[in-house]
Model the fold of this input.
Amino acid sequence: MTDFLADYQAQLAALYEQPMFGLRQADKQQQLLPLLRSLHQHHLANSEAYHNMFAEVDADNWQSLADVSYLAVRLFKLFSLKSVPDEQIFKVLRSSGTTGQTPAEVFLDRDTSARQSKTLVKIMQAFIGTQRLPMLIIDSPAVLKDKALFSARGAGIQGMAFFGRDHTYALDENMQLDLSAIQAFAEKYAGQPMLVFGFTFMIWQALVEALEQQGNSLNLSQGVLVHSGGWKKLVDKQVDNATFKARLAKATGIAKVHNFYGMAEQVGSVFVECEQGHLHAPLFADVIVRNPYDLSESAQGEQGLFQVLSLLPSSYPGFSLLTEDLGRILGEDDCGCGRKGRYFAVDGRLPKTEIRGCSDTGASL
Ligand SMILES: [Zn+2]
Done:
């Protein structure tokens, strides 16, 4: 093990002792920077591709999180990026990717994978509590049976399943609503808190729209919905978060909703929507918004491209990524929910054009 990795692991262990949303941004930045510097050194020493791109970068010059160098996320579709020997790779996560596109490949060793699970648990518990609730999954069990591809969707369901018990699938093998299964679940746990989980578009199409079309409704009023997976398809249908919540509540009775934003390339460090409807950066991650044209840091409130930081990956160089998602920083340390640090909104995805800078960041590969 390199010294950098040992340093990183010791610092990380200390960070797990801190509250997930308790640090003010300035203090959080001071805690994160030394870890990010260690990760940079570790990946320089262990990933040839990372070394080719960032050998000139001196992490000691990083004074703020916005100084941290970043990798365009699409490089995970083009190259095998890893910082561990092949024999230590424990799992390869492939993002589902639309037809005809190469999926991104993310190489996990046991340490990175364990860290992802541990952190996801701590973040989600800060929103839904520590008790394992009866869980309704708005998907088909067929998704998990497809062993050919360990998809991000299957991994997402597996990851979230930890937070529930008596897992019940709301859709059948043909992705149609299994009303009898849902009603049996709703009756069994009537009046009790329950967890409902699914991907945003599935919730919308297979649950909300399907119920509306059937003229049906459910009583899941004690349910807490956790959902993720991007708004692109809903933006195309002109459904925003407020519409989503209003029609969900009408069709199912669910009033508590937590959307979360995260990337297959940074599993575990997710950004969860609070009671005020804002996405929050947890202790182990952060968000910077950049102007899509010159990649300078955008001011608060200005729309731009997200750069996402995560302290979790050591088996692949994914701790700082420039995404193709657009959004805005809404504020720091002053959200009405009481959580500290940065909070933000996702607006959508950059249209399918080449991002300036991607070619720069990838050039020396
Ligand atoms: Zn909040």
